[in-house]
Every structure is written in structure tokens, then in C-alpha cells.
Amino acid sequence: MIETTVMLTFVVAATVHFVLCAVMSLFAYHRVEYLPLAWITGICASVLGVVAFFAPNVAHGHPDALHPAMAWMLLIGIFLQSFYTFGFSMPGFLQLGRMVRYASPVVVLGAVYLLFPSAWWLKGLTLLVGVGYIINIYALPRRYAKRTRVPTYLMNYTAALALTYAFYVYIALNYDPQLLCVFVFFATSLNGYMAFRTFDGVVKHLPHPGVSEEFPLRPVVSKTASGDTGDDEDFNERNRERYLMVERWMKENRQMWMDFTFNRESLCREVGLNRQLLLQCLRSQGHNNIHDYLMLYRVKELKRLIERGEITQMNECVDAGFGAVKTARSCFEKIEGMDLDEFIERHRR
Q1: pTM of the entire predicted model
Q2: Counting Cβ atoms within 10 Å, is residue 159 exposed (0-12), middle (13-18) or buried (19+)?
Q3: Residues with Cβ within 8 Å of residue 151, at least 6 apart in sequence
Q4: What is the pLDDT of residues 107-162, one digit of tens each?
Q5: From residue 186, how far is each of 37, 192, 216 by CA, in Å?
Q6: Stretch (H or E) spanning 225
Q7: Which residues are CB-contacts of 270 (< 8 A; sequence separation ≥ 6)?
Q8: Are 10 and 53 in contact (CB under 8 A)?
Q9: I need a surface site. Which of 151, 165, 191, 232 has the fewest CB within 10 A?
Q10: Is residue 211 classed as helix, strand or coil in its secondary structure?
Q11: Running DSSP on this structure, what letter comes out for residue 224?
Q12: Buried b (16+ CB within 10 A) or exposed e, 300-330
């Protein structure tokens, strides 16, 4: 039973890393900053796949405390999961020469292990080097790029990385194959987190749906409110007509939706559509939901007021329909891809 558990754990983890590697390789083909994550997930997939073939040995093995093989894998794992974070805090830092120098402690320790495989001091040195690699996630950006702010998610990742490998050290001192499977799960989750965090950054730069200047040539008849369009009418055309009707209302009633208490129920009531039909027509034109649609208009209005000099302070953002400064900041960054405080300061000058 334990052999099956170990084998399935490593096979699943290898498959997850392989998928991540394939996706990140596609990203890396177009942008070099994704290359380290592609390499690391690929290496992890290969190692986990090989270990899966030795599931019986892993399940029934009894290695000494911090066995050289486990100590070596500890150092390799920390090295791999630490160095690619520099691509986020210091873009352009990950070059071959620097990476060779950065990996030199791992290479030297590997050579020493071949000479003194059972030396107790070497095991302690391995732990110290591993801790040093984790510290470097913060130390190197402060050394080479003092003005660079380490992102919050990277700090969270580092804390999780340290805890995960502290757990691994415990396993290496008190070997248990089931706990090793738990470690593999957490390590895989960390790599998955960084990959999906990367996807999140890419998605933020996808174009948002625009707002149309076109109005419907004929009014939308009352049966659209009930959703009964009949067999002789085009579904997409009816959705477009409803959407243009909503667009026209938004442009002609700016003062209403600039009130932060104006919400999706208010919009449904004003345009004469139930929530299902309103959501349907908005999604037909690429909007996620009614809330995002209102947010798009409010962000555009906020940007216009700032550019015209009518808003010069953060607390004035309520004039564009935002109930709180925090909401205005997050919505503006999501739509425009820039910091609201910096945008206001730039136009204030």
C-alpha cells in the first residue's frame, strides 16, 4: 500500500511539473523572463519521474539521519526554488555567468560529498548553504538593486519555502516515506503557486472590453426584458441591441452611476432588464459581470477627471463613483495597469 502511495505521489507531482514546464516553455519562447521557471519545472518533473521508478526503495528505505543523498536533494531543491525568484525582483539578472557563480557552492559541495560521503560537518554545512540561498531571495535584490521593492507575494513564497524545507530537514532526520509524500505535495504546490502567479501577471495585461460609441438604430422591444425573443430572431443580434441600449443609458446618465451607491440592481432597474438578461448581454460583448462593467466606466471617468485636473487628491476619487480610496486604487490598477497615486501625482505636476 505504501509503495502505491509513494509511486502515485511522485507520478502525479512529475505530471504537474511537466504540464507547468510545457506551458512556461511556451511563454519563454516569447519572453525570456519565463525561461527559469520552465527549466526548473522541467528539472523537477525529470527528477520526480525518475524517483517514481524507485518507489519500493523510497517506501521501505531506512536512511541515516540527513543521509548524503537526502542532503544533496535538499540543497538542489532549495537552489532551484530560490534562484528563479530573481527574475521577478531583478529582471535581466538571470544570465548564464551569474548562474554558474551562484551555483558554485552546490557544485563544490557535490564534489566534497564524493570524497567524504559520511562527514557530519558536511551535512551541517549543507544546511547552512541552503539557508543562505533562501536568505539571498531578499539579500541579492538589496545588494544589486537597492531601490527595488520585493513584492509581497515573493515574501510569502519565501516564508512558505523556508517552512517547507524545514519540514524536509525533519524528514531527513526522522525518515518517514509518508511524510516525504507530504513534502512533495507542498513543494509541488509552491512551484504551482509561482507559475499561476506568473499567469496572473500576464492576464492583467490582457486588453479589457471597450465601451462603444454606437447606439441602436431601433429600440429594443419590451419582450427582451422577459427573455422571450422568438424563433425568428437572432440571439447574438438581440444581445447586441440590449448592450447598445445599456451603453446609451450609461452615456446619458453619468451622474447616476457616479454615485457609489449605484449598483447592479440599480442598473437593472434603470435599463428595464432583469439581472440574467443584463449579464447575458454584457458577457456577449466580453465583460465578466455587471460589477466589472460599472467599474470600467468609473475608472475611465476617474482617469478623465484626473487628466483634466478636476481630481488632484486621492480622497476625491469618490467623485467618480468609488466608495473608498482602496477600491479606487485596486480598480484603477486592474483596468489601467498603473498605480493610481503615481498617475495623480504625474498629472498634478
Answers
A1: 0.64
A2: exposed
A3: 88, 89
A4: 888 888 888 877 788 888 888 888 888 888 888 887 877 777 777 888 888 888 88
A5: 17, 10, 54
A6: none
A7: 249, 253, 256
A8: no
A9: 232
A10: coil
A11: G
A12: ebbbebbeeeebeeeebbbebbbeebebbbe
Q: Encode pLDDT of 243-286 as tens digits.
A: 889 999 998 898 899 888 899 999 999 999 998 889 888 888 88
Interatomic CA distance for residues 182 and 318, integer angstroms: 48
Q: What distance in Å separates the CA atoms of residue 249 and residue 211, rounded to the nearest whole number?
A: 12
* Measured distance CA(285)–CA(72) in Å, rounded: 54
Distance CA 54, CA 63 (A): 14
Cell of 113: 560529498
- Helix and strand counts by DSSP (H, E) for the chain: 16, 0
Q: What mean pLDDT is predicted for residues 233-244? A: 83
Phi, psi (5° rounding) for residue 37? Answer: -65, -35
pLDDT digits (tens, 9 = 90+) for 189-201: 988 988 888 777 6
Give yes or no for a contact between 78 and 165, defined as CB atoms under 8 angstroms apart. Answer: yes
DSSP calls for 27-38: HHHH-GGGHHHH
pLDDT at 303 > cutoff 50: yes
